[in-house]
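hiii so um. not sure if this is the right channel but i have a protein structure encoded as tokens and i wanna go backwards to a sequence. like what aa goes where. can anyone help
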């Protein structure tokens, strides 16, 4: 009986830690680029604190809520692929339209990440499509 309790406790701890780590990867670009576009109201250490708080708080949905760790993994995968694909698309459009952006202009990066977040949300949570087979 004791080993089952230990396994349950260890499994929940691993799920919590992994979900927090994945959520840090998911939240950081959003908070970072919002901070830049807002004119740096937060210092970089405060951005890190905000990301940590968001990751810790939102991990509850995946550890004890109605969303699964698998959903989180699929969302991360689709998010990263979407960033790459939207980045390629944006580059092609920029070249085709003969546009250029300043190296200090973070708007294209923020738009790319924003489109990727939206795409990943729609693919994983709205269409209920699975990237990985069961």
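sure thing!! here u go:
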């Amino acid at each position: 009986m004791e080993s089952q309790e230990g396994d349950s406790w260890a499994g929940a701890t691993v799920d919590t830690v992994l979900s927090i780590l994945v959520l840090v990867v998911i939240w950081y670009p959003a908070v970072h680029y919002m901070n830049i576009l807002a004119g740096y109201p937060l210092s970089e250490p405060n951005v890190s604190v905000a990301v940590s708080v968001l990751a810790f708080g939102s991990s509850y949905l995946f550890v004890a809520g109605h969303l699964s760790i698998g959903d989180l993994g699929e969302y991360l995968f689709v998010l990263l692929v979407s960033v790459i694909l939207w980045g390629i698309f944006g580059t092609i459009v920029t070249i085709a339209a003969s546009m250029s952006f300043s190296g200090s202009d973070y708007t294209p990066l923020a738009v790319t990440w924003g489109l990727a977040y939206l795409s990943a949300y729609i693919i994983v949570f709205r269409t209920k499509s699975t990237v990985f087979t069961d």
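oh and The chain has a mean pLDDT of 90.
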